[in-house]
Design goal:
mainly beta, 31 strands, globular, 5-stranded mixed beta sheet
Length: 421
């Protein structure tokens, strides 16, 4: 296992270029509690960006227009300066042809967001399909919002219309993730210690409850082929689930504190997890082995120190779509960009009170949300991937580690394909 400590040598690390800022509106009488931006999200096709401004409000903006505004007017942009609130039930089919901004009042504090897009060929698992209230077309784009009261609200992105109100969790819905295969299967992670699986093509029917966590569930993520779900939570918990059988595959052990975020690589061969123990681990999820460790405190803390308050809690982690770069956000007021094969961060950016981060759909921008409801954007490290890496990703998209290791090829090639060198 490679152990990568952070570098304090600023001469070796490039500063990321700021692309823009979306600053949440404030007033002198605003309560600081409730303004947190716990989640940011890009639509799968890159058409929209969404974030929680705090105080029940979610903002939806066309991403290409947002980038153009940054280029024309500079990096700073007050989030609601050019938008108008749309009625919740206002449905207009013409909106699909021209993306527009929406401000959505979700009725309670928003903790999680996720975009979902429909593929008509992916049928619901429900038998009585003729009784469905909603028939989602190919151009359907949904936004799921997880709330403080345990509810999940599903919105039509193009119209801002509320479609579904899912009620079964008894505590905060901390994270949401849609299956990438276009089936509109939604998984929710909650402080009630459960994950719940919903079929939105079956009018939001809850299909399954996944139990195993003994404490709060902080996050969840699908593998790119939608076959595996990773869930992370308090008490160092990392679980992998078979989403065909709805059964637990294995539990991953290695962190020394709560695990708060997870994400698979684009080929599904790697899994990144972020923890309050000051570390990001990169795993081979197929065999449960830690391949890389990115430390945010040097020298690395002992297990006892890592298990408590240490001023270096890692809050979020995100995998770039090139499969080579990982972004992490920690309490030391830094955003770090790592290469999976290098010892030190390749770029850094300053950020106060950061809570979450995610790469844009094309991987060119990283968005990060903060405690005051604002969003900051940086240009990401860019380079042309080697032909070897592109071939590796193509192979790993269809082959788990066990199959790769059984190939009749040189051992060094096997190690490369398994991300061990």
């Amino acid at each position: 296992m490679a152990s990568f400590p952070p570098s304090v040598n600023e001469k070796r690390i490039a500063r990321s270029r700021t692309v823009g800022e979306l600053l949440a509106p404030t007033s002198p009488f605003d309560k600081k509690c409730g303004r947190e931006n716990w989640t940011v999200a890009f639509a799968p096709d890159g058409s929209y960006f969404a974030w929680s401004q705090g105080h029940r409000i979610v903002k939806l903006v066309p991403w290409s227009q947002c980038l153009n505004n940054f280029l024309l007017h500079g990096t700073k942009n007050v989030a609601n300066s050019i938008s108008t609130r749309l009625p919740r039930q206002n449905s207009d089919s013409s909106q699909k042809n021209k993306p527009c901004e929406h401000i959505i009042d979700c009725g309670d504090i928003v903790w999680s967001l996720a975009f979902g897009s429909s593929v008509p060929e992916k049928q619901s698992r429900c038998v009585n399909i003729e009784w469905h209230r909603f028939k989602f077309g190919q151009d359907q784009l949904l936004l799921a919002t997880g709330l403080n009261n345990g509810r999940i609200k599903i919105w039509d992105v193009y119209t801002g219309k509320l479609l579904l109100n899912l009620m079964d969790h008894t505590e905060v819905v901390r994270d949401l993730t849609f299956a990438p295969d276009g089936s509109l299967i939604l998984v929710s992670a909650s402080r009630d210690k459960t994950l719940r699986v919903w079929d939105l093509k079956d009018d939001g029917n809850m299909m399954k409850v996944l139990r195993g966590h003994q404490n709060w569930v902080y996050g969840c993520a699908f593998s790119p082929d939608s076959s595996i779900l990773c869930s992370v939570g308090a008490s160092k918990a990392i679980f992998l689930w078979d989403m065909d059988k709805y059964s637990m595959i294995r539990k991953l052990e290695g962190h020394h504190n709560d695990v708060v975020a997870c994400e698979f690589s684009p080929d599904g061969a790697l899994l990144a997890t972020a923890s309050y123990d000051t570390r990001v681990y990169v795993w081979d999820p197929h065999i449960g082995v830690i391949l890389m460790e990115f430390g945010h405190l040097f020298p690395p803390p002992t297990p006892i120190f890592a298990g408590g308050a240490n001023d270096r809690w890692v809050r979020s982690v995100s995998f770039s779509h090139d499969g080579l770069h990982i972004a992490s956000l920690a309490d030391d007021k830094m955003v770090r960009f790592w290469r999976i094969d290098e010892e030190y961060p390749v770029q850094v950016a300053p950020l106060n009170n950061g809570l979450c981060c995610t790469f844009s759909t094309d991987g060119s921008v990283l968005a990060a949300g903060t405690q005051d409801g604002s969003v900051y954007f940086w240009a990401t490290p860019r380079q042309v991937s080697s032909l070897q890496h592109l071939c590796r990703m193509a192979i790993r998209r269809v082959m788990p580690t066990s199959q790769v290791k059984s190939l009749p090829i040189p051992s060094k090639v096997v190690e490369f394909l398994c991300y061990q060198i």
